[in-house]
Design a protein that fits this description.
Order of helices and strands: HHHHHH
Shape: flat
Radius of gyration: 22 Å
Distance between the termini: 78 Å
Helix content: over 70%
Number of strands: 0
Largest sheet: none
Structural class: mainly alpha
C-alpha cells in the first residue's frame, strides 16, 4: 500500500468527518430554532433554550407545570457529576489491591444513579410533547427521538401549547 493511497484515504476520512460535523451543527441550529418557537408558544422567553440547565428547568415547567421535578433532576445530576469527577482522584490514592473493587463499586453506583435520571428524562420528554397536545404515540416517540420530535413540533405551525401535562388551562374560566 503506497503513501499516495493512504493520503487519499486520510483526505476522504477528513471530508467525511467534516460532512458529519456540518450536518450535526446544522441539526443543532434547527433544533434550537424549533425549541425557541415551542417555548414562545408556551409563553416562555425563547432565549431560555440557549442556557443549558435553566432551559431544561423551563422545559420541565412547561411540561409539568412546576419546578419540583426540575429540582429533583438537578439534584441527581449534581450527585452524578460530583461522583464521576471524584472517581479518578480517589483512584489515585487507592492501593493496587483495593482499586479494582473501588472501580467496580463506583461505576455500579453511577449506573444505578443514571437509571432514574434516564427515566425522569423520558417522562419529561413525554410530558413536553403531551403539553402540546400530541398523541400518545408521538409522546412515546419523543422519549426515544426527542431531537426529531421537537423539530417537528417546533416547525409545525399548527402545533399549539395546550397546558402542562396536556391539560388545557382556562385561566380561571370553566
Amino acid at each position: 500500500v503506497g503513501a499516495d493511497f493512504m493520503g487519499s484515504v486520510y483526505v476522504l476520512l477528513m471530508l467525511f468527518y467534516l460532512f458529519i460535523w456540518l450536518v450535526s451543527i446544522g441539526l443543532t441550529i434547527v433544533q434550537i430554532v424549533a425549541l425557541w418557537k415551542l417555548y414562545d408558544k408556551a409563553g416562555e422567553p425563547g432565549w431560555n433554550v440557549l442556557i443549558p440547565v435553566y432551559g431544561f428547568m423551563k422545559m420541565i415547567k412547561i411540561a409539568t407545570g412546576s419546578y419540583k421535578l426540575a429540582w429533583i433532576y438537578l439534584a441527581f445530576s449534581g450527585v452524578y457529576i460530583i461522583s464521576a469527577f471524584f472517581i479518578p482522584f480517589i483512584m489515585m490514592f487507592s492501593t493496587e489491591d483495593t482499586i479494582i473493587y473501588f472501580v467496580i463499586i463506583a461505576y455500579l453506583a453511577l449506573l444505578i444513579l443514571l437509571i432514574p435520571m434516564c427515566i425522569m428524562a423520558g417522562y419529561i420528554y413525554y410530558m413536553f410533547a403531551k403539553a402540546y397536545g400530541k398523541s400518545i404515540t408521538f409522546c412515546v416517540l419523543s422519549i426515544f427521538f426527542s431531537g426529531i420530535t421537537f423539530i417537528i413540533m417546533g416547525l409545525d405551525k399548527s402545533t399549539q401549547y395546550v397546558g402542562p401535562k396536556g391539560i388545557p388551562q382556562y385561566k380561571g374560566y370553566i
